[in-house]
């Protein structure tokens, strides 16, 4: 980790785009330094966990990056509350990084608009998350005021074209798998649609035992003993099965447990959890013992869908998969 005093070195991109960031960390990660420098993101303010909340109201703030990998998981609950309630419709985007042993903390920000939650990201994952902020936000299309007043229109256009080419080159150097993963999440429109309904036939819902669902999960996991585990990656269904079984057992599931059930890397699991939450399939329940954490449960709509599916499979004389 690099000390926060090194933050001015982050202004290292060949062109200074108008993306202003608030850095919240006890110490600066070298990967964050490199990613900010590569994308030309400027550090407007920086603070440790305890002093960050007042800085969230700064004008012209486009991005908040919370790095929870330092400080031994000591991000205060009040900061999570402030981040989740900061008016994201027109406020700054959020990128939050958590270590694997503290991934449960991501639950506090689940459902926060314009938030990307990462777990021990690789360089490519971090760049991809930040690049989404740079490329999608209005700030990515404007040069700093000094550039506007100093350069002629033709020079500014040429510089902007060069910057677009530079960002495209960064994209090309990132691992394709990370973007394929995002494409897959977007492609499954059925998961993302918040208004979808599950309707079974007008007959009583079937009685289902948790052991039956757990047996399906075990059978799915056995495939990894004979084939590459990522060949059958299906995090949405794996999480639905796990939460359905947990509901039958009257047991709540933590974010970290659900990431394990997804059988994909933690950052990928967090993206799917967020997608399923936004689609109205997952519901967040606060941990009464620590409001920084949350449990994940199936929504009423998802429970009905799972029961209807089991009933349809049984009527067809098929096996659950």
Largest sheet: 5 strands, parallel
The level of helicity is: 40-55%
Taking the alpha carbons of the first and last residues, their distance comes to: 45 Å
Individual helix count: 12
The poorly predicted ranges are 1-15, 138-151
Number of strands: 8
**Which range does the strand content fall in?**
5-15%
Determine the mean pLDDT.
79
The helix-strand sequence is EHEEHEEHHHHHHHEHHEEH
Structural class: alpha/beta
Walk me through this protein's architecture.
The protein has twelve helices and eight strands. The model is unreliable at 1-15 and 138-151 (pLDDT under 50). The strands form two sheets. Strands 2-1-3-4-5 form a five-stranded parallel β-sheet. Strands 6-8-7 form a three-stranded antiparallel β-sheet. The chain is α/β, with parallel strands linked by helices and 321 residues long. The longest helix has 21 residues, at 153-173. α1 packs parallel to α3, α3 (123-136) packs antiparallel against α5 (153-173) and α10 (255-262) packs across α11. The N and C termini lie far apart (45 Å).
Structure, briefly:
The chain has helices at residues 30-39, 77-84, 123-136, 145-150, 153-173, 176-187, 189-192, 210-222, 235-248, 255-262, 266-278, 300-315; strands at 20-24, 42-47, 63-67, 93-98, 115-119, 253-254, 282-286, 294-298. By secondary structure, it is an alpha/beta fold. A five-stranded parallel β-sheet has the order 2-1-3-4-5. Strands 6-8-7 form a three-stranded antiparallel β-sheet.
């Amino acid at each position: 980790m690099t000390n926060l005093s090194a933050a001015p070195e982050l202004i290292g991109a060949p062109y200074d785009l108008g993306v202003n960031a608030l850095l919240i960390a006890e110490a600066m990660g070298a990967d964050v330094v490199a990613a900010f420098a590569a994308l030309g993101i400027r550090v407007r303010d920086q603070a440790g966990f305890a002093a960050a909340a007042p800085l969230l109201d700064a004008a012209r703030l486009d991005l908040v990056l919370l790095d929870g990998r330092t400080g031994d998981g000591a991000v205060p609950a009040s900061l999570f509350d402030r981040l989740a309630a900061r008016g994201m419709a027109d406020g700054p985007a959020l990128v939050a990084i958590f270590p694997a042993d503290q991934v449960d903390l991501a639950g506090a920000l689940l459902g926060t608009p314009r938030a990307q939650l990462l777990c021990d990201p690789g360089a490519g994952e971090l760049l991809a998350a930040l690049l989404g902020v740079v490329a999608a936000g209005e700030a990515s299309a404007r040069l700093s005021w000094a550039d506007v007043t100093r350069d002629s229109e033709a020079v500014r256009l040429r510089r902007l074209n060069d910057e677009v080419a530079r960002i495209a080159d960064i994209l090309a150097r990132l691992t394709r798998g990370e973007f394929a993963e995002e494409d897959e999440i977007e492609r499954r429109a059925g998961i993302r649609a918040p208004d979808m309904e599950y309707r079974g036939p007008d007959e009583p819902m079937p009685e289902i035992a948790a052991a039956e669902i757990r047996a399906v999960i075990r059978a799915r996991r056995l495939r990894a003993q004979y084939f590459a585990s990522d060949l059958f990656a299906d995090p949405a269904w794996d999480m639905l099965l796990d939460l359905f079984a947990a509901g039958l057992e009257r047991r709540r599931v933590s974010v970290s447990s659900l990431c394990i059930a997804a059988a994909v890397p933690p950052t990928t699991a967090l993206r799917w959890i967020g997608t399923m939450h936004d689609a109205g399939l997952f519901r967040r329940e606060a941990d009464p013992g620590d409001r920084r954490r949350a449990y994940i449960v199936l929504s009423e709509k998802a429970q009905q869908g799972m029961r209807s599916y089991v009933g349809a499979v049984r009527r067809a004389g098929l096996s659950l998969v």
